[in-house]
Here is the input.
Amino acid sequence: MTKPPKPSLPPSPSRPSRIRIGSAPDSWGVWFPDDPRQVPWQRFLDEVSGAGYEWIELGPYGYLPTDPAVLAEETARRGLRVSAGTVFTGLHHGPGVWDRTWAHVAENAALAQAVGAGHLVVIPSFWRDDRTGEVLEERTLTAEQWRDLTGLTERLGREVWERYGLRLVVHPHADTHLDGEESVTRFLDATDPEAVALCLDTGHYAYAGGDSVKLIESYGERIGYLHLKQVDPEVLARVVADEVPFGPAVARGVMCEPPTGVPALEPVLAAAQALDVDLFAIVEQDMYPCEPDVPYPIALRTRRFLRSCGV
Here is the structure.
């Protein structure tokens, strides 16, 4: 398979960095296609543009319009472009889930392709319910499950590229089988770089004790995408000690506004810039649920902070 080319960075004298900054519905408290506690999609688009972002992700399929013509018109008139779609998968369950997984992936990938995105973010399924904490399966994968996860993810990466021209980037996530250094490096070592890249979410990686700078320096050629996020170390210590599932941990404020948490984003961005590749860095501050007037001021401050970091 030919390695997908990375999009070229539009020339801009005000942006010496090859990192393109964006945000996502997640930073507006959006976790579901439809939820009365979430802001309407029109308000999200208005505010993300007003905060100074030019790139967005699609978020949960069905939150933003799924008609490509409507979505293209609504984003374009606000000066926005789409960087990626997002899907959850459970490929460690083996070939039996392939057809169902592909149907879900295909509708997301088709929309992402139609509006000009170049990436598809893939998040592994949770080993415990992210709201109730109910244990859904073993926390550790068997050797057979690892083979299914890596092999089927490679297949998915090739199919998504060949059919939709999107680069697959796998997103380690709290309360999934891919979270910290041990599982992430094992996954990277076992997968084909031509088929699978990594979406490094700095907050989720820190949540599991990982060092984002070390990962970028060690596996730079596998970093295909970034999510910028921080955790509050005091809240994190309490939720880990109490074995709080991810959803309630977010409600407690475990993911916090930069630059108040960890990891420090300046060295992460410096390490990413040292790779000398075009790279999306999407702000994705988990905030569910949240009051509708909370996200926009945070987005303004976060964009201003990231400019001070040179991006």
About this structure: Residues 1-15 have pLDDT under 50 and may be disordered.
